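Lest this sound abstract, we think one record worth quoting, the chain in one-letter code, the fold tokenised, each line plainly labelled:

>
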Amino acid sequence: MRKTAVVTAGTGGIGLETAVGLAAAGYAVTVVGRDPGRGARAVARIDAAGPARRSRFLPADLGSLDGVRALAGRLADDHAASGDPLTVLVNNVGAMFPARTDLDGVEASFVVNHLSPYLLTELLLPTLAAAAPSRIVNVTSGAVALARRGFETVEPAGGYYGFHWYGRAKLANLAYTLDLAARLDGTGVSVFAADPGGAATDMTDGTMTDPRIVSPALRLLWPLVRRRFERSTSGPAATAARPSITAATDEALAGRTGLLIGADTRPAAPARAAADPRTAEAVRRLSERHAPLSTS
């Protein structure tokens, strides 16, 4: 029986390097993205090394919750029809927006960085449970350290600052990840977060040079902040993918769950706010309200 993996936003950057690593480890990899051209190039890159299992591309708009529902349905149906287990789900999708943007009437950072992976994961839980032992890997970010912590609403009061809103959405997803791990403990489905550190990717190219992404206080220090951003996003995507690959494949993690795999590929302590049950409960309520599992 084949080992299979799904990598969202897998047609470039960290996601593509993650897919390459999973293919090298013997997984049949499905990469998900919006652009069929990039998808075809990603599949060619993955298969060029002659992996044991050929890869495939599935198109999906992960900024649309209806698109996520359609993707989940397609994946569940495919695995049911083939009999192949869904062994690994890597939620690699992420995006930062310099200016406030809505998707389906909800602030875009929260949709892409949390609601989208949350919804895909929840809808695929039956498929992942049927394949146990299986793993879920949610890609997080060091930006959670500068995030506002209240989750009574999608957006906190005050102005919009892309980096902080990105970090807040990633904090929500990290809290969800730890909460999900506790919820699934004993089911054979292990849940991990992976912190890639920093890398030069499409998301960091250009966005991180725009001072609008940080609060006015940090704009006063923009030359210093920008240099720090440049240093932290200058590494290769292949290096940044290692935590995700480790979380998905390392046999030393078998039977373990609820861990954050740091940029050095070793378990690390998550942000304190992410481990707070009150944060997890607030994120759960917000997620269920804005990304219901059923639209009927």
In short: The mean pLDDT is 91. The CA atoms of residues 145 and 272 lie 9 Å apart.
